[in-house]
Amino acid sequence: MPEGMKRLADFAAETAAMSAGEFAAAFADPFLLLDPRKGKTDAGGVFRLLLPQSILAGVQESDLEGVKAEAGFNLVIKVAKTRDRRYPGLVTLGRGRENDIVVESPAVSKVHVLFRKDPKTGIFTIADSNSTNGTTLDGVYLTGSMHKEVGSGSQIIIGGAFRCTFNLPADLFDYMDVLRKTGKL
Questions:
Q1: Which whole-number Å values give the CA distances from 55 to 28, 49, 80, 87, 141, in the listed order?
Q2: Which domains does the chain have, with CATH numbers?
Q3: Which of 18, 49, 64, 69 lies at a C-alpha separation of 20 to 30 Å from 24?
């Protein structure tokens, strides 16, 4: 598993004994819940990414057989600065090793997404760094390097291949608590 990523089930088990206050004290940074979509190779040997349902208007269900994410495979990724690199004040996500969050996929650009926290307001923003395959935020395609506010529950699609949900720590704690209580973890 890539550095900085954990399966949701494992992370929930590790933090199960924490109260909401203890969790908030231990984790100040937001998280991404990443739901990897699988790709497949077509008859001509070309790797095709299979996009999330919300983007697949007109695609037949039979085209998607076997490509839905496995239950419990969601990954938890902390949105935090981990490397002192080229982008001070920004958390970078991309395929390149210099990123704070590394996602090894041909659909993800070397530096794909930039997260920023406003030091005065605490509001987080996201920008696509002119990636090849683009980024959407709550169904809106991000163009250029415009920064858009991202909040807990925001849906992000990276490179058309990875669907993420942005979560503030308190909301991730509540989500895991519900999953534990309903036996879904």
A1: 32, 12, 28, 31, 11
A2: 5-181 (2.60.200.20)
A3: 69
Taking only the tens place, the pLDDT of each residue in 10-66 is 899 999 999 999 999 999 999 998 765 444 434 444 333 333 333 333 434 444 343
Q: Tell which residue, 15, 1, 5, 4, has the closest CA to residue 169.
A: 15
Report yes or no: 52 and 37 within 8 Å, Cβ to Cβ.
yes
Instruction: Identify the bridge partners of residue 94 per DSSP, sorted by sequence position.
Output: 102
| Single-letter amino acid, residue 31 | F
Global pTM reads: 0.78
| Longest pairwise C-alpha distance within the chain | 54
pLDDT in tens, 63-81: 434 333 333 457 888 999 8
DSSP state of 99: S
| Triad 39, 41, 42: Cα angle to 5° | 120
From 116, 79, 126, select the one nearest 100 (Cα to Cα): 79
> H or E segment at 164?
strand 162-167
H-helix or E-strand containing 178? Answer: helix 169-181
**Which pair of tokens denotes residue 39?**
């790709």
| CB atoms near residue 125 (< 10 Å) | 16
Terminal-to-terminal C-alpha distance of the chain: 19
